[in-house]
TrEMBL record:
Residues 3-40 form the RNA polymerase III Rpc82 C -terminal domain. It comes from Anopheles maculatus. Belongs to the eukaryotic RPC3/POLR3C RNA polymerase subunit family. This is DNA-directed RNA polymerase III subunit RPC3. GO terms for molecular function: single-stranded DNA binding. Keywords: DNA-directed RNA polymerase, Nucleus, Transcription. It is found in: Nucleus. Residues 45-123 form the DNA-directed RNA polymerase III subunit RPC3 winged-helix domain. One of its GO terms (cellular component) is RNA polymerase III complex. Its main location: nucleus. DNA-dependent RNA polymerase catalyzes the transcription of DNA into RNA using the four ribonucleoside triphosphates as substrates. Specific core component of RNA polymerase III which synthesizes small RNAs, such as 5S rRNA and tRNAs. Component of the RNA polymerase III (Pol III) complex consisting of 17 subunits. The lineage of its organism: Eukaryota, Metazoa, Ecdysozoa, Arthropoda, Hexapoda.
Amino acid sequence: MLRYLDQYISVMESNDYLSKFDTKGGGQFTVNVKKIFEQLTWACIENIIVEKYGSKAARIFRVIRMKKYVEQEDIQKEAMVPAKEAKQLTYKLLEENFLQIQTFRKPGGGNAGAPKSFFLFYVNQSQIVSMLLELSYKALYNSITRLTHDKTVNKRLIEKSQRLESIVETMKERGESDAYINEILETLTPPEQEILAKVKLRVKSLYSAEIGIDETIFMLKLYQQYQK
């Protein structure tokens, strides 16, 4: 890694992630944390768009973000997406508040010329972050509520399974036979085992979802913090 350190530093400087403020000791640098979190947030937003609307929608979003203000006709060309599909995806992103639209009026020519209106699409990162935070909080609440519900409804079965696991662990430590251990395990009926397996799978999925949502909230809140 040290062989390419200068190249790594050069790349990070070119993206404004680092800036040199002194040449002592081979160079002293400051880290642009605000810029880093801005880019991480862009990546987070684009990943969400890919998951919800596909890679073409993300490409359209990226084009508008890079160009600042773009007319509809230019979007399909820059994103290399067929006109009809580009229009559908653009307005879907607009509908879901990932894009904003600005209307401009250009005076018409001559005395009787009617003013001409044209529309430019643009991206407001702070607004998207606020929207995603609100959605994330709702998703987290729903996940926790569902998890609590599943645990409450299946409380007796979960506790029974935990008691059996504790008993079996003790039996193994005492060196009990496998036949005797299996006999104890069979007190959990096949229907109960099936229900328990489904509950455990759902709980695991909900825990995983909560972790993902927490990470998203953490990222977005840090972005907001560094914008102050």
